[in-house]
Amino acid sequence: MKLFGTDGIRGIVNEFLTPEIAFRLGNVLGNMVDKKIFIAKDTRASGDMLEEALVAGITSAGVDAYKCGVLTTPALALITRLENAAGVMISASHNPPEYNGLKVLMRGYKLPDDIEERIEREMEKIRYCEYKSVGKVIEYDFASEEYFEYIKKQYSFLDLSGIKLVVDVANGATYKLNPQILEYFGAKLEVVNDRPDGFNINRDCGSTHPENVKKNITGSKIAVLYDGDGDRCIFVDEKGEEFHGDKILGITAIDLKKENRLKKNNVVLTILSNMGLEEFLKNNEINVVRTKVGDRYILEEMLKNDYTLGGERSGHIIYRDKSTTGDGLITTLEVLSSLVKSGLTLHDLSNRIPDYPQVMVNVEVKNKEIYKNKKVFSLMKSIKDYRVIIRPSGTEPVIRVLVEGPDLEKITDIANKFYELIKELDKE
Questions:
Q1: Which residues constitute the catalytic centre?
Q2: ∠ at Cα 274 (271, 280), nearest 5°?
């Protein structure tokens, strides 16, 4: 059975993702690494169950399990980098609470495909250590503090006094730490969705549901919204308009270039980033490279060519001189730093970057390979002067259709045609 998707192992708990899978993963990792493995989780009720299974698997292979408790993915990535160790993040990111996931990190980085394939093969067998070598379980209470200290050093110059910020922590992993750090830098906060109960993570809140925050933006307030594991964010400006990943990349790329932080004068985007962003960057003499969808592919391109900045429209942004992975908090601080330096409003900054209309439809299907049908290709060939991207979701039974172009009515009509065609083909 195929376990690893685009972002680790992820699925509905006790239907696809079971304690047995967590145990087997822990056992394989314990047999692959030396000494210790760090474990963190978001606020889902199923996190405790999966954590205990992971711990059992790790220690059964003779390796110590360090439990970090509730922590963001980027904070765990930092710990594994500082400790030169492996880690497992228990989270399904932006997915609803019935989902959970297991994301493996090695010295700060997500695993390449070939290592995941090797792990998947090894999970078919279990190898126990001798009873004298069973690993220990260690409560590692310093992870949040280590991350906090790292951020303070990286942004020691930053003064956010005067910034009024609504912070939507999605009832997820950011609910304590991110507000504490933003307050440390002087921002005046209104924190919402910060009462996790195990079942409300991402529920009508956070980066995938900005509608409620948009309604409540007044005066000079702006908002930042995180996802369940804190590796991405989006903003809402003073006018209640969304300031998404493309806008973040455009604005911060200009500042990175001024500060000589933008290596090789290049930004890495995915195929989903708007053509308006690409035009804006090129007009500012910044080059663009595009990859497949997924922050892992962005990072691979960045590492291969030594680029500093890359990201996705969804808010996964990697500042490689600060972090080895997408980090919602670092993204927040970079945007707010640009905002303070500019003396403008976030809305004014946003308006600098053109944004062609995009329509995305999610088509629920039984067969995710249906998008390869000849009739779908035929319809794509018939579309002129508009960009169409069709791809299966890596985590859900969904095919995503993105249409981009200057005319909203036209792209909506095109998107609906693809929706109807794929639905019809899926019935056959």
A1: 93
A2: 120
Shared-domain flag, residues 135 and 18: yes
Say which residue the tokens 């693809």 belong to.
418
Query: Of 158, 147, 8, nearest to 82 (Cα)?
Result: 147
194 is in an annotated binding site: no
The answer on 169 and 113 residing in a single domain is no
**Tokens linked to 394:** 């890596």
Q: 3-class SS at 14?
A: coil
Contact assessment for residue 67 and residue 320, using Cβ atoms and an 8 Å cutoff = no
113 is in an annotated binding site: no
Give the pLDDT confidence score for residue 359 in this predicted structure. Answer: 93
Domain with 311, as residue range(s), is 243-351
Q: What's residue 347's pLDDT?
A: 96
pLDDT tier at 65, thresholds 50, 70, 90: very high
355 is in an annotated binding site: no
Find the catalytic residue in 60, 93, 273, 350. Answer: 93
What is the domain-level CATH number for residue 369? Answer: 3.30.310.50
What band does 275 get if pLDDT is binned at 50, 70 and 90?
Answer: confident
